[in-house]
Every structure is written in structure tokens, then in C-alpha cells.
Amino acid sequence: MRFRTHVSKQGTLFLAGRNDETNEKLIGEVKPEEYVFHTEAPGSPFVLVKGKPKEGDLKEAAIICARYSRDWKKNEGDTIIHQFLGKDIYKNKEMKLGTFGVKKLKKIKVKRDEIKDFNSNPAKESTLKEIIKEQDII
């Protein structure tokens, strides 16, 4: 089961789900102090910022979340993203695969132009291994 991977401009690793199954697995990897993103509308990857974010990382993660969302693919307009911490995520047995509740969140509006202008930087396998080793993550 593979996540989408992205290395921010600052060198921070982001992981993103690809479907309900990988979103479920991804949330299982989240530490209480790590940042997670999801669109307000259903149908997006959960995006996890591994470790402590650097300047600009949170905005970049929000843009990635919007970029791979159903909302963006359908409307290609501004997208509302929820930002929250791992400690605020919960799940009860009535929730379907890939669905979670959030106790406390911040809303971020990602503008259409930010999404259109975004150039994805998927992590190369060698870079990914270096970051994982350096930051002692996953």
C-alpha cells in the first residue's frame, strides 16, 4: 500500500492517501503533534506533514490536499481545506473506511490560482529514504 509522497520546498516530507484504504492507513501513522489536512467536502486525500513543519509547509500541504481532491477536479475553483493535529482525530465504529471525525480544526481557503500554479515535487525513492533516515520517521 503506497502513499503519494511529496517533499516540500523546505525539505519536509508529506504523505497523502490515494483512496479510502490508504487514507485509513495514513491516519494510523499520524503522531499527536503532526499536522493533517483534508478538504471540507468529501473526496480528498488526507495529507500528513511528517515531523515539525517549516515555514511555508502548512500552506504547501493544503495546496496538495486541494490539488488531489474531488472538489478541485469537479469545480477547479477555490477549495476549503481543514487543518488539524493528529491528537484531534477520532474514529468510532459507525464510521466507514477512510472516514474520521475531527474535534478541533482550522479552515484554510486555497485559491484557484495557487492550485493551478502548483508544481508537484513527488519524492524520488532515494530522496525519500534519506529524509526518513535523517528525520527518523515512519
How would you characterize the overall build of this protein?
This protein has 138 residues and is an alpha+beta fold. The chain has one domain (4-120). 31% of the residues lie in helices and 23% in strands. The chain has five helices and eight strands; from the N terminus they run ββαββααββββαα. It has helices at residues 20-29, 57-67, 70-75, 112-116, 125-135; strands at residues 4-7, 13-16, 35-39, 47-49, 79-85, 89-90, 101-102, 106-110. The protein has a six-stranded antiparallel beta sheet, sandwiched between helices. A hairpin with a 7-residue loop joins strand 3 and strand 4. It is globular and about 40 Å long. The model has no long low-confidence stretch (mean pLDDT 88).
What's the gist of this structure?
The chain has 138 residues and is an alpha+beta fold. The protein has helices at 20-29, 57-67, 70-75, 112-116, 125-135, and strands at residues 4-7, 13-16, 35-39, 47-49, 79-85, 89-90, 101-102, 106-110. The longest helix has 11 residues, at 57-67.
Supply database-style keywords.
5 helices; 138 residues; six-stranded antiparallel beta sheet; two-stranded antiparallel sheet; alpha+beta
Tell me about the biggest sheet?
A: 6 strands, antiparallel
What's the total number of strands?
8
Low-pLDDT parts are: none
Instruction: Figure out the total of helices.
Output: 5
Total domains:
1
- General shape: globular
The helix-strand sequence is EEHEEHHEEEEHH
Question: Which structural class fits the helix and strand makeup?
Answer: alpha+beta
Radius of gyration: 14 Å
- Approximate helicity band: 25-40%
State which percent range the strand residues make up. Answer: 15-25%
How far apart are the first and last residues' alpha carbons, in Å? 14 Å
Average pLDDT number: 88
